[in-house]
Amino acid sequence: MALLIYGATGYTGRLIVARALEAGLRPILAGRDATAVHTLASSHALEARIAALDDPSVLDALLRGVSVVLHCAGPFSRTAEPMVSACLRQRVHYLDITGELQVFEAIAARHAEAERAGVLLMPGTGFDVVPSDCLAAHLHRRLPRATSLALGFRALGGVSRGTALTMVENMGRPAWIRRGGRLTPVPPAYDTRTIDFGDGPVLAVTIPWGDVSTAYHSTGIPDVRVYMSVHPKQLAMLRRSRYIGWLLRTGFVQRRLAAKVRAAPAGPNDRARAKGVSLLWGEATAPDGERVVSRLRGPEGYTLTADTAVRIAQRVLAGDAPRGFHTPSRAFGADFILEVPGVVREDVPTGAPR
What we know:
Blueprint: E1 3-6, H1 11-22, E2 28-31, H2 34-43, E3 48-50, H3 56-62, E4 68-71, H4 76-90, E5 93-96, H5 101-108, H6 111-117, E6 120-122, H7 130-142, E7 148-156, H8 161-169, E8 175-179, E9 182-186, E10 192-196, E11 201-206, H9 211-219, E12 223-229, H10 232-248, H11 251-262, H12 270-275, E13 277-285, E14 291-299, H13 301-317, E15 324-325, H14 328-332, E16 344-348
Parallel strand pairs: 1-2, 1-4, 2-3, 4-5, 5-6, 6-15, 7-12
Antiparallel strand pairs: 7-13, 8-9, 10-11, 11-12, 13-14, 14-16
Helix pairs in contact: 1-13, 4-5, 5-9, 7-9, 8-11
């Protein structure tokens, strides 16, 4: 059973390779940059394979003899479809680390194809969306009658170039919530609320996080909103973007912002990751006002991504892989996230219904 990590030389890809080696795996390393891939592979005596994503025949050759692909090369809005299609043709299980809402929806739409091919399609095997998806499933388990779900996160640490480039790509575009089971576009900074992640109340704003897709698939709860903690100045900028979205989407602005991102460090260094933490919060509410609240605290987001992605890859390699599109909690249960060292979950008393 062979694991192939595509995008192995990116910031998160390298963290995943290191974690896979710690776990005793010997993955095949792959990507588009021949020099970078061969250098990394040779440093660990691993096999290297080189392929771009624009030629189906080349991708088919890339996947020969492979059982599981862990796709780490974003933005996934452009890279996921060709890799998913290749995995379906070659009957290879597909995992990735996206957090992009539309990517989840596009892959979910291929559930029947994956069932026929006998493979698993699981986007979002990292910080996007494993901890929040497991939290959503836990809240639904606590309150099966819930019809409304709110999730929030506060990541204390930096972002990688890849994450920042995806953020640039989405600037000026609508945000999304789920209402009545349907994805609904809303203006940026559509809703705000105060959330206590465990260290005191902070301001948070709705964002088009991947759980707007996955939490619905995991729980069936029809109304879903996802929040991120923000500084008041960031909130003001998001609100201004409602009126200058057309400008932020122009090629000139996109190129300038992307160039600034590429000039920045690849991502948080080891020291920053060791100090960082991930804080998550969730609330499920029933029609009569009954509600439940739970929180998670865990390692820094990129450290957590490397751990959960490798744990999921190990399960799939061992044959623990349902067929079709699945979210992490649907495949492995709400308590899967508790396997990660340093993750703590707590149920918060709520008092009387609101």
